[in-house]
UniProtKB/TrEMBL annotation:
Protein name, UniProt field: Short-chain dehydrogenase
Keyword terms, alphabetized: Oxidoreductase
Domain of life: Eukaryota
Keyword hit for Iron: no
A Gene Ontology cellular-component term: membrane
Keyword match Repeat: no
Family, per entry: Belongs to the short-chain dehydrogenases/reductases (SDR) family.
GO MF entries: oxidoreductase activity
Regions that span the bilayer: none
Pfam families xref list: adh_short (PF00106)
């Protein structure tokens, strides 16, 4: 952590580290999610991709959900490259279609016996970012 400027009130700090409260390294080294099934929507990039990657490193079976199959394939490859024995299931599903979501969840339960964690990261930040830019260009 470094202090960017002492003139700022309140002071502005730049963080290039991981806060202890959210640091996953111990969960990863302990394989704390071994035997757990984690569904991650929005897993093809961004927050969801990193969440899926981290849960897989912590031993979880991960279900990658997003609409773009080629991106899900790429994320699966990234996971298997680092965690060769990872259990990965992909579901190229539009999350606002309840019928397709139900089919996907049924597949998940058949394969893994249930769901322990849902990371709901599907979405878009576009309107939020535009609003930010308009408020503070
Ligand atoms: N990044 C930030 O700083 C931030 C801050 C606050 C909140 N958030 C929120 O956190 C969420 C994730 O952010 P992000 O930055 O990781 O976004 P991102 O990089 O744009 O990723 C969005 C993910 O959601 C998937 N997705 C979008 N619509 C979908 C749909 N209808 N059905 C299934 N999958 C869908 C996308 O894949 P496909 O396009 O292949 O479907 C992609 O995997 C967003 O809802 C965002 O608003 C982000």
């Amino acid at each position: 952590m470094s202090k960017e400027s002492s003139d700022e009130e309140p002071p502005v700090y730049l963080h290039h580290d991981v806060y202890p409260a959210v640091d996953p390294s111990q969960l990863i080294s302990n394989h704390a999610f071994q035997g757990k099934c984690v569904i991650v929507t929005g897993a093809s990039r961004g927050i969801g991709e990193d969440a899926a990657f981290t849960f897989a490193r912590a031993g979880a079976s991960v279900v990658l959900v997003a609409r773009t199959k080629s991106q899900l394939d790429a994320v699966e490859s990234r996971i298997l490259e680092h965690v060769p024995n990872a259990q990965v299931l992909k579901a190229a599903v539009e999350v606002i279609d309840p019928a397709k979501v139900e089919v996907a969840v049924t597949r998940v339960v058949e394969r893994f016996g249930g769901v322990d964690v849902l990371v709901a990261a599907a979405g878009t930040a576009r309107s939020m970012i535009v609003a930010f830019l308009q408020a503070d260009p």
